[in-house]
């Protein structure tokens, strides 16, 4: 069109589009929009690092400033993915170091990051600002030292729940005195003690610091001094929250807290001595997010604390809260949106605390805005689930984990099909669901019929036959991620729904009944899927055809080559449709 | 073994297992034609196959073989679309394969050592006997759940497993079970679904609420295992084992493909078995030794201290060449003495 807008105008318009979906839609309009958009895209999100290659990304988007990426499948969190499987960050970091000298942000989740990668990051990007490593591993505190030392304009260093080989706390002292740009520091996953004076000085010279999450090794006695230097904090993670009971320590702490008028989020709380909790009361009315999931605090003290936090929106807590504590939560915190209850004794044979399905029922009744739940308990009933579903049709995320994974309805001994059926039927906006308990194919039928907005489903020890899997794959229109373990699902449902798999990010099946033959067939028929058989018993062809594979991981990809970093327990089909080993 | 031929029928008094292959009437009966045909064919075909047998793994081989040859004959590229009326053959063979466990894949079927259930055949906790049974075949049903492991079928395939291994491992199981109180269920990999860092911090957290006498709590205990020359390391949960022998055989399986050549294209089963047994020989012949780093950062030979003490102090494991490990043994003995 001769009279289209000049590029600059279109670019300006596009700059208001932040969502990837919108930008992707824009790029499909016509070739010139595609070109303009790709030159002005600054942020990308890659949900599966193997879905695309660095070269493809760099070719399409030459001017990125921020990259966010995920690696291993979710079940890697529970050790279902053997070590060495992949998700190495280095090839990406190396390729981007050349292509994006102005890169500012790297956010990685479940990837293997080495010290080499970190050093490369610290030296390649002059304007590097944000490094977030969630559930990553493979690096040591030496790598952190490089980042601290070389990233002059560092704003965020967030090591959420990563597994870091902790050589010493010395890395923190590598932040130069000239570094005053820190906005967020999360070192909660580290073990070693850092130099407290270095930490205090760092905090003191960072006027923009909003988030400070300390590690367990920072004692309570030090906390007051740190907070005092940063009264502008919005998010605070304490270290160990215990000390000898002394009134001066207490008043010191209480004073420091009272100066923090902007505090919204609290976390940390290892080794809590409950007598020190009231030191925080002055900030509680402003607190919207509270993570007490490491805190062994008796229910009564928890309740006292929660009653102070009337504006709480998110609570993570251990089951020490008990049903009674959840009743109190339901009464006090009418704005609650997210609740996570973790088990204090997950491997014990018997319940150790009086926390049952009743707690969840209470909260669902009392908290009208509750939309996201992760709940570990030891018993559940269909009646409770039906009540919960009727109380809270606005659930977006519902993850229930009954410690005994095939537990039936404890009142009727029936499967929990109708209970979960009620959840998916009533909660029309449900995007994420994890189920446990005794479940037959029927629950999958309900899910396939009703869960039209469901994007992620996690299933364990459930179902009777391929029908179950078939219901889900054929019925859930919005499904992106499906992860299954120990279910009697096999070849038929998988092959019958092969085309569906290309509309999803990934499918994980472990300890199911999928044969190697089916995997080969699937890979042959669907060239845009990578079908990885992850099996540590040696070549799958050495076993009879009907034998099930240990794990299969299927994901769509635009990178047509098989990944070269496969370890020898990952078997895939190469391009000639013959089996390639390692 | 005497009881190889004991058959305990599905409807036995102690076995209240829920059967999901349509053999009981409480399973999902849909109105759709697919399911009812499904159910019927299963009902007709599988009564015999659902009988639980308490033989040793491998004692059922002939039947299982025929199951798999049936499956072989079903070509997967014939009509992969989900048929409206499933052919009886296919449903049958699918069910039979799973009926090998006498049940749908039960939770207990998956109770294993560190790796996924279908690999390690002999791990504690799979056989939930009363501790008094000296013969696995005599284990009572009442009050316990018997799982016939998928390994039953697996061993049939891998007929080259030497009888010696079977015997050794069975003894190991029996020995183990008498040693352990059956109180806590042995753990399934990745269950409950709690992240490692949370599990590990729970151990120390719970100490605050109720006193644990200095021993590691009931949580999992993952440590990294590396091997000289191997390109990547693994993780094991030390709490899956109760003795050194179990740990070392698990490690043998994990690392065998690193020793003699590769599990390469020529990797026929016999070759893989060779590497495992060769590694075992190597380990016993001390070409490789198993060492660990303890809380103080010292490297010690595995096996010198009582098992409980070992898991309380082990931070990580390493399979070293024997020549590199010279000098470790005497030190560990000294340490032991010093600690006492």
Automatic annotation (TrEMBL), chain A:
GO biological process: auxin-activated signaling pathway; pollen maturation
Gene Ontology CC: nucleus
Recorded metabolic or biological pathway in which this protein acts: Protein modification; protein ubiquitination
Entry's localization field: Nucleus
GO molecular function, one term: auxin binding
Pfam families (UniProt xref): F-box_5, Transp_inhibit
Keyword Nucleus: yes
Gene3D superfamilies: 1.20.1280.50, Ribonuclease Inhibitor
Residues in F-box domain copies: 5-46
Domain of life according to the entry: Eukaryota
InterPro entries assigned: COI1_F-box (IPR041567), F-box-like_dom_sf (IPR036047), F-box_dom (IPR001810), Leu-rich_rpt_Cys-con_subtyp (IPR006553), LRR_dom_sf (IPR032675), Transp_inhibit (IPR041101)
Keywords: Auxin signaling pathway, Developmental protein, Nucleus, Ubl conjugation pathway
PANTHER family listed in its UniProt record: F-BOX/TPR REPEAT PROTEIN POF3, PROTEIN TRANSPORT INHIBITOR RESPONSE 1
Official protein name in the record: GPI-anchored mannoprotein
Organism, scientific name: Salvia divinorum (Maria pastora)
Gene: TIR1
TrEMBL record, chain B:
Xref: PROSITE patterns: PB1
Subcellular location: Nucleus
GO BP term, pick one: auxin-activated signaling pathway
Superkingdom of the organism of origin: Eukaryota
InterPro entries named among the record's database cross-references: AUX/IAA_dom (IPR033389), AUX_IAA (IPR003311), PB1-like (IPR053793)
Entry keywords, A to Z: Auxin signaling pathway, Nucleus, Repressor, Transcription, Transcription regulation
GO cellular component entries: nucleus
Major localisation: nucleus
Domain (PB1) ranges: 220-324
A Pfam short name: AUX_IAA
Record note on quaternary structure: Homodimers and heterodimers.
Job description of the protein: Aux/IAA proteins are short-lived transcriptional factors that function as repressors of early auxin response genes at low auxin concentrations.
UniProt record similarity statement: Belongs to the Aux/IAA family.
Protein name per its UniProtKB record: Auxin-responsive protein
